[in-house]
Write a structure and sequence with these properties.
2 copies of one chain form a homodimer. With 191 residues, chain A is an alpha+beta fold. Chain A has 9 helices and 6 strands, in the order H-H-E-E-E-E-E-H-E-H-H-H-H-H-H. In chain A, strands 1, 2, 3, 4, 5 and 6 form a 6-stranded antiparallel beta sheet that branches. The radius of gyration of chain A is 18 Å and the shape is globular. The structure holds a DNA duplex (30 and 30 nucleotides).
Chain lengths: 191, 191
DNA sequence: TCAAAAGTGTGATCCGCGTCACACTTTTTC
DNA sequence: GAAAAAGTGTGACGCGGATCACACTTTTGA
């Protein structure tokens, strides 16, 4: 729970009393590699704050192809937010790629925290603001950049993920085939 | 200003007194077709709530090609948020496509409103939540759908924009060339 | 520890879509 | 209301990247 407090205080300082109020809304959970947090069709009860480990969230099309919406490591929040906020069934999958620990928060908890503690509403707004800007940047990148450029942008933005995540998933994130991505950087030095 | 109050109260009810506090943070502005609200390199002082009219926001690459990040009509908020929040220079352009009226809010105003009035922080969080989910859906669409499907999805999501916006801009939004988009729906009936 | 699973590189082929080009229509603008 | 600007359809052509196929390497897990 120390990590949670630190995570919140990166945005707003809170008192011991306030943190005592916040704590019980979160539940701790260990997750093993390959384990699913969410599958298409599930009821999405929780969003997750990742304390350690790595996850991928992806959309699965009718042919069984994966399209990665997001990777998430330490201090990232993740959920099928469409389903979570609107209380619909999940359309995305979330899978653990590296043994992990997470904190779970349900929608009622999020809304109660926001309503009761102005600071927490501020915290969530700040997180959303960053997330919104990041998604917008990704859209621009998908529209305007070549696969080559997108790969480089990804490397600059997430150098640590670049190392520990298999290239095939990075390809799925960038919207290129595995093979094309492979050719991109094998040609890079020579040209 | 009536519209503003109604817009806010779609999310949270507020008292007359509260609205009197909110009002002065907004300034009214008329905008004519072809007029820019923001250009690449500008300092982004304001975000805009659109009362009437239509805008497009786009990224312009080094070859002069446009990539549309967002359209916005009545009751939409719009700004180069990356620049606005981080107080950097704009990388996007915002152009009026149909004579418009907007309300302008600067970052200081947004933050003051959020800090002083919990309800307003809640309002902004609610807006961001919706925006976040919408952007995520668009990313999935860009990754997983064919141009054909994306065109249909766009039509379902924004039927009114579909009518009043020239197809060439819709193509730029979908990430296809104008010509390809044109061929998509000329072939649609026959196959 | 060793078999199975997952990840990766690379050749061959194919096709969707971008690009260029041009004619035609519609809308703007003064 | 005429000239200019903007939007649109469609043909020809070529390329970037998807797909399929296979060999090889690395990681995983009973």
């Amino acid at each position: 729970m120390d990590k949670l407090r630190k995570h919140i205080e990166d945005v707003v300082p809170i008192s011991d009393g306030e943190f005592d109020f916040v704590k019980p809304f979160f539940t701790y959970k260990r997750v093993k590699k390959h384990q699913y947090l969410t599958q298409e069709g599930d009821t999405v009860t929780f969003e997750y704050l990742i304390l350690s480990g790595v996850f991928r969230m992806f959309y699965l099309d009718s042919e069984g192809k994966e399209y990665i919406v997001q990777f998430a490591g330490e201090n990232w929040w993740m959920a099928d937010y469409q389903a979570y906020f609107k209380e619909k069934k999940a359309t995305l999958h979330i899978v653990c790629m590296e043994d992990a620990e997470v904190l779970c928060l349900n929608l009622h908890g999020r809304e109660t925290l926001s309503a009761e503690l102005h600071k927490m509403e501020h915290f969530f707004r700040a997180k959303l603001t960053n997330g919104y800007v990041a998604l917008q940047r990704r859209i621009i990148s998908l529209l305007a950049s070549t696969p080559q450029q997108r790969y480089e942008e990804f490397g600059q933005l997430y150098p640590h993920l670049m190392q520990k995540i298999p290239k095939k998933y990075i390809a799925e994130y960038l919207g290129v085939s595995r093979e094309t991505l492979s050719r991109l950087y094998s040609n890079r030095v020579t040209q």
